[in-house]
């Protein structure tokens, strides 16, 4: 009986071993199937980038700034005395001729002072006539001894004092008459009224602006230059001025005045350009743009400012090998930084292709696809890095799309 049980147990054990073996085989086969179903590693993505060709720098750069047209000479007309304004005969925009009265003060007080000064002059003249008559009577009598010499000398002194009083009274009269004339504000030159500072009925102080006059005879284009552009201006720089509303209206001028002090708010410098024979369409207050040549004859190589990046704290650019279509990071020596370009002394050669869009997402030896070539700044224009696609070729999905200005 025990022998039968043992045989039964051995048969069960061998059956379990067979079941385990079958399950193990099935698991291994399933893993092999899963491994064979996994795809091979994805190919390295090719990133589209925009490039520009490195060119010889030359001719400097030309910067366009916005400005306005102003009169070459603009003055504030003001009274030389204070008083109540009773009349202003001109308004903003009126043309004024030389010698024209533009405003008047109440003249009553000044007229009374002039009348009083005339009366003083008359009284002093009467005293002078009296002293002169006295001397005329004393002269023959002194010689005959009828008048003492001392009395005659006193008469002479009285005459001299009377003459001095007449001179003082006449000077006061002239001053009073000037004060009376100052109650009329007269334009000293022809021009156009550009502003007014007081209205009839107001009491104005001496020197307070009543009318602002833009004199005829010259017009300036006024610009606010950044410090870098201002420092790069050469003596007698010629600037072309173009109307922003009509590009056909233009004039040429030379730098006439450069402010030595920057504006405390904008930190720019006021520059006045005297226009030579400006057309009538360039009226006062017109908005204009000026093309300012700066930099002179630049040296070195020119690349767009967008191509510049940094490597180990030094300026660098991504350079594309046109044969392998891969990028390499190359350090450069910068001569100067300009508004839209960088001048390079070492590290590049004319004709090299530098990446201008997509520099933030590149790594060394990464394959790229040249998404057109931008013209080089300050030098020869770039040439397309690849021929244009045939009309029946479909562009790859996502080509040329950008996120935040960088191709992806």
Give the structure's gist in a few sentences:
By secondary structure, this protein is an alpha+beta fold.
What does this structure look like?
It is elongated, with a radius of gyration of 48 Å. With 408 residues, the chain is of the alpha+beta class. The chain has 4 domains: 48-58 and 299-407, conserved putative lor/sdh protein from methanococcus maripaludis s2 fold (Beta Barrel), CATH 2.40.420; 63-71 and 218-294, Efflux pump adaptor protein, beta barrel domain (Elongation Factor Tu (Ef-tu), domain 3), CATH 2.40.30; 76-106 and 184-214, RNA polymerase II/Efflux pump adaptor protein, barrel-sandwich hybrid domain (OB fold (Dihydrolipoamide Acetyltransferase, E2P), Beta Barrel), CATH 2.40.50; 108-181, Helix hairpin bin (Helix Hairpins, Orthogonal Bundle). The chain is built from 4 helices and 26 strands. The two termini are 82 Å apart. Helix 2 (108-144) runs antiparallel to helix 3 (149-181). The strands form 6 sheets. Strands 1, 18, 19, 20, 23 and 24 form a 6-stranded mixed β-sheet that branches. Strands 3-12-15-14-13-16 form a 6-stranded antiparallel barrel. It is 27% helix and 35% strand.
* Low-pLDDT windows of residues: 1-17, 22-38, 373-408
CATH topology of the largest domain: conserved putative lor/sdh protein from methanococcus maripaludis s2 fold
Proportion of β residues? Answer: 25-35%
- Radius of gyration from the alpha-carbon trace, in angstroms: 48 Å
What's the tally of helices? Answer: 4
* SS elements, strand count: 26
Helix content: 25-40%
Largest beta-sheet characterization: 6 strands, mixed
What is the distance, rounded to the nearest whole angstrom, between the alpha carbons of the first and last residues?
82 Å
Structural class: alpha+beta
Shape assignment:
elongated
Number of domains: 4
Average pLDDT confidence is 78
CATH class type of the largest domain: Mainly Beta
Helices and strands, in order, run as: HEEEEEEEHHEEEEEHEEEEEEEEEEEEEE
- Tell me what the CATH architecture of the largest domain is: Beta Barrel
